Every structure is written in C-alpha cells, then in structure tokens.
Amino acid sequence: MTTTFALGTGDTYFVAFVKERPSAGQAKALEALSNDFDMLVVQGRDVHWLMHGRSIETRITTKAWDAIVGRHRSTSRNATRPRRLMERMQAGG
Question: What CA–CA distance (Å, rounded) separates 92 from 48?
Fold first, then answer.
C-alpha cells in the first residue's frame, strides 16, 4: 500500500479491494464521493478510505458505492490487517 493517511484520534482507515480495476471515470466518481467525513483515494484496484470516526458513521451509502463499483464487486478491510500481513511477509514469517 503506497497511500497513507495521517490518522487522527478516532479515525478509521479501510482499504477496499475491487475485483476489477476501476476505469478512469469510475475512479473519478469514487473519489467524488469524498466528503467532510470520508476521503476516498483510488490506486489501481484498491480504494483507500479514511473516515474521521467509526466506519458505521460513514456518509457513503451502499447504493452510491454499488452504482459505481457494482454489487458484490469489492471487499473492504481495516488497513491494519493488510499492513500486518505485509510486515509478516517481509519478515519471512
């Protein structure tokens, strides 16, 4: 992961793994969903998502996300998990 957000107290950082790389138009539409609570940055097939609070407080609706990405075309994880997996892989364990 090359995108990093400066996390404040209470912030949540997710990475959404999209099954197919979003087109330029889809990437632009995803990033346009950003608001004062949510910030989306598209990198390849990954969407980095910073929330200024808990994920259940997001202002991005499933309907808006699905209209761009497609239903069941992505999975999201808290960025802590992939970061830890990468660290373990780099350490050889």
Answer: 26
Angle (CA) 7-60-62 rounded to 5° is 125
At residue 2, the pLDDT reads 54
Distances in Å between the Cα of 22 and the Cα atoms of 2, 44, 70, 86 are 18, 7, 10, 24
Average pLDDT over residues 22-27: 98
Residue 51 is encoded by which pair of tokens? 């929330």
Claim: this prediction has a pTM higher than 0.85: no
For 11-71, where are the E strands, in sequence order? 12-18, 38-43, 46-51
Least Cα distance to 42 among 55, 51, 54, 33 occurs for 33
Tokens of 50: 């910073």
How open is the CA angle 24-31-83, to the nearest 5 degrees? 100
